[in-house]
Design goal:
With about 160 residues, this protein is of the alpha/beta class. The protein is about 45% helix and about 10% strand. The chain has nine helices and five strands; from the N terminus they run E-H-H-E-H-H-H-E-H-E-H-E-H-H. The protein starts with 8 loop residues before the first strand and ends in a 7-residue tail after the last helix.
Length: about 160
C-alpha cells in the first residue's frame, strides 16, 4: 500500500482570489476545483483575509460580483488558518512592494509549497524563495492538461 502524500499547501494573493471568487475567471477554474476537491490546502491569515474582504467591498467589485460573499465563505471554510506568529521559517526575500510582503510571510509561516500570484514584483522573487512563486494561469493550464498538482507547483530543479 502506497502512502498518500499530503495535499500541497498554497497561498493565493488577493488579485487571484478576486478573479476566482468574484469574477469566476474560467482560466482559473482548475484551481477552484482543486481546493474544492481537497487536492490542495489554501492558507489564509488575518491580514490576507482582511485585505480580501476589503477589496471585495470596493463598490466597483461588489456591484459586478454580488454573489461573491457565498464563494468567499465557501473558500474560507476550506482554508487552513495560519496564526500570525514569529514561527521560524526559511529566510524570505523582501518584496519591493511592502503591501505584498504579507503573502510571502503567510507562505513562510504556513510552510506553503507555493504562492500563486499575478504580481510582477512577487513573481520576480521566485528564484530567491524557499517555496514556488508561480502565475496561477500556468498552474491552471497544467492542471487542465492532467499534470499532477505537485508537479505543477514544484520548484525548478535549481531551487528545489
Amino acid at each position: 500500500m502506497t502512502a498518500r502524500r499530503p495535499a500541497p499547501r498554497v497561498v493565493f494573493d488577493t488579485n487571484v482570489l478576486v478573479a476566482i471568487l468574484a469574477f469566476d475567471d474560467p482560466a482559473l477554474e482548475p484551481l477552484r476545483a482543486a481546493w474544492c476537491e481537497g487536492a490542495l490546502v489554501p492558507l489564509i491569515d488575518a491580514d490576507c483575509q482582511a485585505e480580501l474582504e476589503r477589496v471585495l467591498a470596493y463598490p466597483e467589485i461588489a456591484a459586478r460580483a454580488p454573489r461573491a460573499h457565498g464563494s468567499v465563505a465557501a473558500f474560507l471554510e476550506r482554508c487552513e488558518r495560519v496564526a500570525d506568529s514569529p514561527v521560524a521559517c526559511a529566510p524570505l526575500p523582501l518584496c519591493r512592494d511592502a503591501d505584498d510582503q504579507k503573502f510571502l510571510a503567510l507562505a513562510g509561516r504556513g510552510r506553503a509549497n507555493a504562492l500563486l500570484t499575478r504580481d510582477k514584483l512577487l513573481l520576480a522573487l521566485a528564484r530567491s524563495s524557499p517555496f514556488a512563486i508561480v502565475a496561477p494561469e500556468a498552474v491552471a493550464v497544467r492542471l487542465a492538461q492532467g499534470t499532477a498538482l505537485d508537479d505543477c507547483l514544484a520548484l525548478p530543479p535549481a531551487l528545489g
